[in-house]
Amino acid sequence: MEGNVAPFTKILVAVDKSEHAVRAFDYAVRLSMVTGANISVLHVVTPPVAGEEGVSAAQLADSLRKEGDHLIAQLKSRVEMQFGIRAGETTTITIDYLIKEGSPAKVIITSAKQSDADLIIVGSSGTSGVKELLLGSVSHAVSNHASCPVLIVK
């Protein structure tokens, strides 16, 4: 490892509605305040395979996107209340909010590459043992396949 490691300049933090993801978001903001890194907050909506009875797949996808919009609004409010950073205000850091569709791990990895992120921050899945072995986890897949460092926040 080289002796001089540059500070992070672009952080991608993946969020969902979990407590671990909110902690990852807070950590990304605190780290950015120290390093001056820009943050891209990414929420991935997994497209439904089929709608439930009486609900079309398109309606379900629209509902999931609206939930994502609500989550982003909550995070914007959180960053303003906890860190004093208002949306659109000029500060030492920039936070962009994105919602994309697809397989969460693949979208996170692809988005990090496309944005030249030098750090990905994700919340731990909270799964372990047999459940993680059978289902896998987004944080595990991202940490194994990302081309930049990955910080998993518990």
Describe this protein with a few key phrases.
154 residues; Rossmann fold; five-stranded parallel sheet
Whole-number count of domains: 1
> Might you state the CATH topology name?
Rossmann fold
Number of strands: 5
Assign the CATH superfamily. HUPs
- Average of pLDDT: 85
Give a short account of the largest sheet. Answer: 5 strands, parallel
Strand order of the largest sheet: 3-2-1-4-5
The proportion of residues forming helix, as a percent range, comes to 40-55%
Count of separate DSSP helical elements: 5
- What is the overall shape? globular
Question: What is the first-to-last residue Cα distance?
Answer: 26 Å
CATH architecture group name: 3-Layer(aba) Sandwich
Contiguous low-pLDDT stretches (5 residues minimum) are none
- The proportion of strand residues reads 15-25%
CATH class: Alpha Beta
What's the Cα radius of gyration? 16 Å
* Helix vs. strand class: alpha/beta
Protein name: Universal stress protein UspA-like protein
InterPro entries: Rossmann-like_a/b/a_fold (IPR014729), Universal_stress_UspA (IPR006015), UspA (IPR006016)
Family: Belongs to the universal stress protein A family.
